[in-house]
Design goal:
Blueprint (H helix, E strand, L loop, with lengths): L8 E11 L4 E4 L7 E6 L2 E6 L2 H15 L12 E10 L5 E7 L7 H13 L4 E5 L1 E2 L2 E2 L8 H4 L3 E2 L3 E2 L6 E2 L4 E2 L4 H12 L4 E8 L4 H6 L25 H17 L4 E5 L8 H13 L3 E5 L13 E4 L4 H8 L3 E4 L2 H4 L15 E2 L4 H5 L11 E6 L7 H8 L2 H10 L6 H19 L21 E2 L1
Parallel strand pairs: 2-4, 6-7, 6-20, 7-14, 14-15, 15-16, 16-17, 17-18, 18-20, 19-21
Antiparallel strand pairs: 1-5, 3-4, 3-5, 8-9, 10-13, 11-12
Helix pairs in contact: 2-4, 6-7
The structure holds acetamide (ACM).
């Protein structure tokens, strides 16, 4: 079987057929996002449940066509194996979080990531737009947020406990037009963008722009870690953020909107509750990291991202919330991929390709799905991001699309023989299975392995 993510059923026929890109599509009743793809000597036929199903059938056709189909200029005619594929996803939420706050990801590269998600049949791009180290969302009412909060004069290079600094300013922000473009580009690929503005912690960039927002003042943070300064929970600050979220809602039409809520030392749960209520009044669903469970009673529609293991997710389910599993032990793709001393800036626990592939969400029949998180303290460029993300994100794609149980050896064979050549064709600078290439190491830049 050559596909990845692995379809529910693949039946090989005899021989191959020439294919010039023409296929017949018909819509039929079936599972959401599902399709049946028939490649016969008479041609290619797709029965799709919906537009997403048709889109995924096209991604599968591309996989059948071979690696060259993933180049910017694909071959016109290809030979396809005669086969029948019957397929639909296991989970509705197949997500990736990109932290564009710690290191700004230029828009061109963000659009490229949307393409990479679509290739892997992933359908949620969670954008972490603000943090202590940067504010990336153009705010017209309070422009100092992006003008002041959008850059910092320096960055820690490597772990904060022993690292030096780059000595180089870093910054960038997306205009609202930029983000509307990203949303539309993603929608055309059946990817929903979930924006996040993190409150009441991880807010030092906003506080640098408007010191009255914070418990104390200070500049945009140039270090990593958990900054103890948080937003003040008084009405004026909450009102300020209601305006900021209203602008965000104008740009991002999706139902689910992130309010962060994580790692707010001494943060006041009322802040999270009031912003959550505001989002609900605007017809949206709040989305928060699992610390929001300690904020007191939340709107029932709040979606909880369980990152400190899965226990918080189970608690959230017991309280009636929808849950996205993203336990750091399995799905934090910034964590190091092996114990090899050559791993660049090795942080977190060892999270191998097999660890990601072996992840089985708890309460799988009750959660919305899962997402992989890419925090970027130590991923300062698209090349570093590629190295951390792939091929583990390919393994994750199969976890959230394909039915269990899994066959790790079979996966590794399919990956090596069929999928890494596709990533090569796409220009993805993944981590080779046997370790980093010479130019992917960062000698002397300290990490903090756990
Ligand atoms: C998180 O890792 N602070 C959600």
């Amino acid at each position: 079987m050559i596909l990845l993510p692995r379809p529910a059923s693949y039946t090989a026929g005899e021989g191959e057929v020439d294919f010039d890109g023409d296929h017949l599509v018909e819509y039929v009743e079936g599972p959401a996002e599902g399709y049946r793809l028939s490649v016969t000597p008479g041609g290619v036929r797709v029965l799709a449940s919906d537009a997403a199903g048709e889109f995924y059938a096209r991604q599968t056709l591309r996989q059948l066509a071979g690696p060259a189909a993933f180049r910017a200029v694909p071959p016109g005619r290809v030979r396809l194996p005669v086969c029948e594929v019957v397929d639909h996803p296991r989970f509705a939420w197949r997500g990736v979080m990109l932290d564009v706050a710690r290191h700004f990801l230029p828009r061109h590269d963000l659009l490229r990531y949307v393409d990479l998600l679509a290739v892997h049949k992933l359908n949620v791009l969670h954008l972490h737009l603000t943090d202590d180290q940067g504010w990336r969302f153009e705010c017209r009412r309070y422009p100092r947020l992006h003008e002041v909060g959008g850059w910092r004069p320096d960055s820690r290079f490597g772990d904060r406990r022993s690292g030096g600094t780059t000595g180089r300013p870093h910054g960038g922000y997306y205009t609202q037009d930029d983000l509307r473009e990203v949303v539309a580009y993603a929608a055309a690929r059946h990817v929903t963008v979930v924006p996040e503005i993190d409150v009441p912690g991880h807010s030092q960039a906003a506080i640098a722009a408007y010191p009255e927002l914070g418990v104390s003042g200070g500049p945009v943070w140039t270090d990593w870690g958990v900054n103890p300064n948080v937003l003040r929970a008084d009405e004026a600050v909450v009102e300020f953020y209601r305006h900021v979220f209203d602008e965000l809602l104008d740009v991002f039409p999706g139902e689910v909107v992130g309010l962060g809520g994580d790692e707010a030392e001494g943060g006041d749960g009322r802040f999270v509750r009031r912003i959550a209520r505001h989002l609900v009044e605007r017809g949206r669903r709040p989305f928060g990291w699992d610390e929001v469970l300690d904020a007191g009673p939340l709107p029932a529609s709040t979606v909880v991202a369980s990152w400190r293991g899965e226990e918080p997710g189970l608690r959230a389910l017991a309280r009636g919330h929808d849950v996205v599993m993203c336990p750091e032990r399995h799905l934090y793709l910034d964590y190091r991929q092996s114990d090899d001393p050559d791993e660049p800036i090795p942080v977190g626990t060892v999270t191998t390709l097999a660890d990601v592939y072996g992840y089985e969400p708890a309460a799988a029949d009750r959660v919305l799905g899962a997402q992989a998180n890419l925090w970027t303290e130590h991923l300062d460029s698209p090349r570093r991001l590629d190295y951390a993300a792939f091929p583990r994100l390919s393994a994750f794609a199969e976890v959230v699309w394909s039915p269990a149980p899994r066959d790790g050896d079979g996966f590794t064979t399919r990956l090596a023989e069929h999928h890494l050549p596709r990533l090569d064709a796409l220009g993805v600078e993944y981590r080779p299975l046997d370790g980093p290439r010479p130019w992917q190491v960062l000698p002397g830049v300290p990490g903090f392995p756990r």
